[in-house]
Amino acid sequence: AEKAKWPKETVDLWAKLSKKEANDIDTIQRSIVHHVTTTLARAAYNMDNFSAYQAVALSTRDRLISRWNETQGQLSKVDPKRVYYLSLEFLLGRSMDNALLNMGLKDTYGEGIERLGFNMEEVIESEVDAALGNGGLGRLAACYMDSLATLDYPAWGYGLRYNYGIFQQRIVDGYQTEYPDYWLNFDNPWELPRLDISIQIGFGGHVQTLQDEYGVTRHNWIPGQSVQAIAYDVPIPGYDTENCNNIRLWRSKPTRVFDLTSFNEGNYEKSVEDATNAEKITSVLYPNDNTMAGKELRLKQQYFWTAASLHDIVRRFKKSMREWTDFPNQIAIQLNDTHPALAIVELQRLLVDEEMLSWDDAWEIVIKTFAFTNHTVLPEAMEKWSVPMFEYLLPRHLQIIFDINLFFLQKVEMKVPNDRGLLNRLSIIEEAQPQQIRMAHLAVVGSHKVNGVAALHSNLIKTTIFKDFVDYYGEEKFVNKTNGVTPRRWLHQANPQLSALITETLGNDKWLKDLSLLKGLAAKTEDAAFRKKWMTIKRANKVRLAELIKARCNVEVSPDALFDVQVKRIHEYKRQFMNILSVIHRYRTIKSMTAAQKASVQPRVVIFGGKAAPGYYIAKLVIKLINSVAAVVNQDPAVGDLLKVVFVPDYNVSVAEVIVPASDISQHISTAGTEASGTSNMKFVLNGGLIIGTLDGANVEILEEIGEDNIFIFGCMAHEVEDLRHAQRYRNVPMDPALQGVISAIEKGTFEDPKIFQPLISTLTVGKDFYLISADFASYITANQQVDAAYKNQEEWAKKSIRCTAHMGKFSSDRSVKEYAEEIWNIKPYSVEDEGHL
Ligand code: PLP
User: Fold this and answer.
1) Best residue among 129, 491, 568 to mutate for probing ligand 1, ranked by most atoms within 8 Å of CB
2) Which DSSP category does 812 fall into?
3) Which of 37, 92, 390, 500 has a CA-to-CA distance to 792 between 20 and 30 Å?
4) Which atom of ligand 1 is nearest to the CA of 651?
């Protein structure tokens, strides 16, 4: 509006001065030095790697922001349909390297900073990870944001800006100890505070019921408390495009209005206490992966986040002056797990209570807008909230949930009369003491599409947790969207040598945006010179990992040994326990060998990493056992280099970027039917690492793509699990004899005081071995022997490794995101034109 009033010369002046900065080396160096001398108030003589990082980051950020501005400015004019990805976790890791590569500026910056006396790779190491996630779910959200930007989809993420990300793990006396991750200590150049965007979020209070002028009953929620949500924007640049998307993270702050009330009542301390409580909401990420904590503060986080995001989305929609019925034509909202399921209720509340739509009109809009991704079938992970706690925090939302449930169950009753059991099973409310709200049921009822994250998992949810819903709604509502990973971060950035070899071999770098082109590598398996180059790069990556292991674990490992990796959250269903038990078996086997027999043993380095939830006692004991076994094995002269065991502390995205390219074999060995997809399995195979795994999650589809000669599959299948558990419980199946030997060795005190491990061992005693370690143990040992034998033939191994990479095209997150866009969100790409700011 202002702009229209300006004289031409003012408009021209803005146009001239707001031209984007050039990207030649001279301009870039000037911009770095400018930030050193002004923003950082430093000079050449007191520079270190960290301040070099800060200056390069600030200069990169300038370029990101100008793309961000241009993209968002053009999008608000064009106003295409957008998708909003609601995720409580975004596990982004470091940003600088990725931003420079995606914008095509890494080489120029690298050279620029080199001439200024610094090494780019060392400078990059100064950045702390943004670790606002637990594991696979949060990292998936980060890969999807990269693909959405790269494919020019108009998309925003919405999440929380936690002051503390996932804890830092240190190993003390073999045990995990947790330290707070105060990542903002070093300032965060990758966010833009939007202090002007502030939204009031209410909690508690009561509901007024009144009649409006037409005699219609209306509800008005009067919250008892309120806090402010402040927006922080994180720009997400696409690869090889001008488009730059956004993740908006909310931070909680006390509201001034509210403080004043207490203050005016003369209760200064209470006003400060309330302010502290308001800040607490976005203080810390809950450190549970695939388990529900049930804490009131977590529910507050969920409401705070969904309410702020919906308010923002609705505000943006209202600017366009469209009809409400257009809402689902303009907006798709994807729920990453049930964590944001309250958004369904909040949108219904906004439409009915505040925008005065009828219940049915509002509900139609809600269902067309939302889609829900299910991530697990594990019972301990299913989100449920106790009705009394919920009512205290969100009284109006509880009424709405009861109404949603009532109308839904009435429809069920019409379709399937007189089936109380069915109503009970489908109900959003579980009749327990106290009653519980089943968030997965709310998410299914309030969405038009529900998806699982790998073919096996998507089929499994249709026959287990959502079976009755499939019978009621029909099959079409339940679809599969197999996860994917971004090849930009997980190959191009993490494995630059391999990326360069692939580009050289294929003749160009188009594969980075169309991963199916990797199949062009398949023909090269027969080229001995190519195999040699391929394996030389793998070895260089192993040398780099060996250095990290030396630095972090103080263990020397040989890069010529087979590197065997299991890095992921520590969980019983992921069976790190089975892995370390098999390592003990290997240790005992080697110890029993003659020197001649030892000569034919394939040397192996077994590498573990991952965090256990701080309250997960059994998972933490697994870490202790791994470290106790490592302490004995690594010192044993009878074993020497034939076997080394290490636990790399504080596994995170940056550590993964070193480990993934360096693995020969990695372990994805969950009990069949428990791992929804897995994404690290895809990253390893993409980098030419073979995998040993069960027929679980995306392993099944990886097998389909790469072929059975290039993967080591073992263990029972998902459909056999129930029978095996039953047999074990009621038919006295004896423990596997090799496993029995391993357990006896632990019980004899081979690795520290056996009393320590008793609770762990007792999870295996007959009838209790829920994750079927005993049932799968023999085939697991055999599969590991096959790995050893295959690795001995290095030429054949190289062929397998090349075939792995060549056939991973399907697992790009670009493919996943395109499927969501076309089959669920109904959105189209919009490509920003490089036209300057005005
Ligand atoms: N944690 C981190 C730091 C990761 O980078 C990844 C995936 O790459 C995961 C967890 C998920 O691993 P998985 O799929 O093995 O559970």
Assistant:
1) 568
2) B
3) 500
4) 3
Cα(462) to centroid(ligand 1), Å? 26
Please, what are the averages of pLDDT over each run of 10 residues along the chain (838 residues)? Answer: 78 87 94 96 92 97 95 95 98 98 98 97 97 98 98 98 98 98 93 95 97 92 96 98 98 77 74 85 96 94 98 97 98 98 98 97 98 96 97 98 98 98 98 97 98 98 98 98 98 98 98 98 98 98 98 98 98 98 98 98 98 98 98 98 98 98 98 98 98 98 98 98 92 93 98 96 89 98 98 98 98 98 98 63
Catalytic residue selected from 255, 486, 679, 694: 679
Catalytic member of 375, 489, 611, 803: 375
Nearest C-alpha to atom 7 of ligand 1 is from which residue? 680
For the sheet with 155-160, list strands across it: 192-203, 225-237, 244-254, 155-160, 82-86, 331-336, 370-373, 449-452, 478-480
- 487-811 in CATH: which number? 3.40.50.2000
- Calculate the average pLDDT of the chain: 96
Counting atoms of ligand 1 from 1, which one is nearest the CA of 678? 14
Residues 6 or more apart whose Cβ sits within 8 Å of residue 483: 140, 453, 454, 677, 678, 679, 682, 698, 811, 813, 816
Contact residues of ligand 1, CB 6 A cut-off: 135-136, 139, 568, 651-653, 656, 678-680, 683
> By the 8 A CB rule, do 25 and 108 touch?
yes
Q: How far, in Å, is the centroid of ligand 1 from the Cα of 134?
A: 9
Catalytic residue status for 679: yes
Residue range 771-813, pLDDT digits in tens: 999 999 999 999 999 999 999 999 999 999 999 999 999 999 9
Ligand 1 geometric centre to CA of 568 (Å): 5
Nearest CA to ligand 1 atom 11: 136
At 410-458, the pLDDT tens digits run: 999 999 999 999 999 999 999 999 999 999 999 999 999 999 999 999 9
Helix (H, G, I), strand (E, B) or coil at 378: coil
Nearest partner of 363 among 384, 381, 379, 344, judged by Cα: 344
Strands (E), 551-616: 562-567, 604-609
Answer yes or no: same fold for 79-94+129-482 and 487-811. yes
Residues composing the chain = 838
Establish whether 574 is a catalytic residue.
yes
Q: Which of 81, 300, 384, 569 is catalytic?
A: 569
Pair 433, 244: CB distance under 8 Å = no
What is the sign, positive or negative, of the torsion defined by CA atoms of 160, 161, 163, 168? Answer: positive
Alpha carbon 359 to its chain centroid, in Å, reads 35
- Ligand 1 centroid to residue 678 C-alpha, Å: 8
Report the distance separating Cα 302 and Cα 342, nearest Å.
7
What ipTM describes this predicted complex? Answer: 0.92
Give the C-alpha separation, 823 to 820, whole Å: 5
User: Is 375 one of the annotated active-site residues of the chain?
Assistant: yes
Closest atom of ligand 1 to CA, residue 653: 3
Q: Where are the domains of the chain?
A: 79-94+129-482, 487-811
- Whether the Cβ atoms of residue 254 and residue 274 lie closer than 8 Å to each other: yes
Beta strand 82-86 with 331-336 is parallel
Distance 114 CA to ligand 1 centre (A): 33
Expressed in angstroms and rounded, the spacing between residue 647 Cα and the centre of ligand 1 is 16
> In angstroms, rounded to a whole number, what is the distance separating the alpha carbons of residues 446 and 440?
10
pLDDT at 837: 42
- Rounded Cα distance, 632 and 343, in Å: 52
What are the Cα distances from residue 571, in Å, to 291, 338, 398, 630?
A: 10, 20, 34, 19
Catalytic residue list contains 568 = yes
376 is annotated as an active-site residue:
no
Longest C-alpha distance within the chain, in Å? 95
Please state, in angstroms and rounded to a whole number, the distance separating the CA atoms of residues 383 and 423: 20
Catalytic (active site) residue 37: no
